[in-house]
Write a structure and sequence with these properties.
Low-confidence stretches: none
Largest sheet: 5 strands, antiparallel
Mean pLDDT: 89
Radius of gyration: 23 Å
Number of domains: 2
CATH architecture of the largest domain: Beta Barrel
Helix content: 25-40%
Order of helices and strands: HEEEHEE
Number of helices: 2
Length: 123
């Protein structure tokens, strides 16, 4: 039996390993590029303040359990606003802001691109 010509010893494993490595690295680089592109687009967008109503809120929870028994979770908060034209905008908001917003609140929404900057309730 010739072990030197098998998949693992004949270069097949190394080729698959490097292919997977470059695929994962490419996905990682693509994700970073997308994030930087959105950040740059937001920075170039005008700051807008418009009349809006909070129509809904939602959270997204991500949980990761590790083999050593430890677990990690992260929560993202989103609010959907409806502006005077009838268009709706969903923006990521901080946890503190999320807790202060209530569905039906009306006020002035300030945002820049997809970046939430604040919401001032009408009294």
């Amino acid at each position: 039996m010739m072990m030197g010509n098998g998949f693992f010893f004949g270069g097949g494993f190394e080729a698959v390993f490097f292919l997977m490595f470059f695929l994962i690295a490419g996905i990682f680089i693509f994700a970073i590029a997308q994030t930087l592109r959105q950040w740059n687009k937001n920075n170039r967008s005008p700051r807008l303040t418009v009349e809006a109503t909070v129509v809904t809120k939602r959270t997204e929870v991500s949980r990761h359990r590790h083999d050593d028994g430890f677990s990690h979770s992260a929560t993202w908060y989103y609010a959907t606003f409806q502006v005077e034209s009838g268009d709706r905008i969903e923006l990521a908001v901080g946890g503190g802001e999320y807790g202060l917003l209530a569905e039906g609140d009306r006020g002035k929404l300030t945002f820049q691109g997809t970046r939430y900057l604040g919401f001032e309730r009408e009294s």
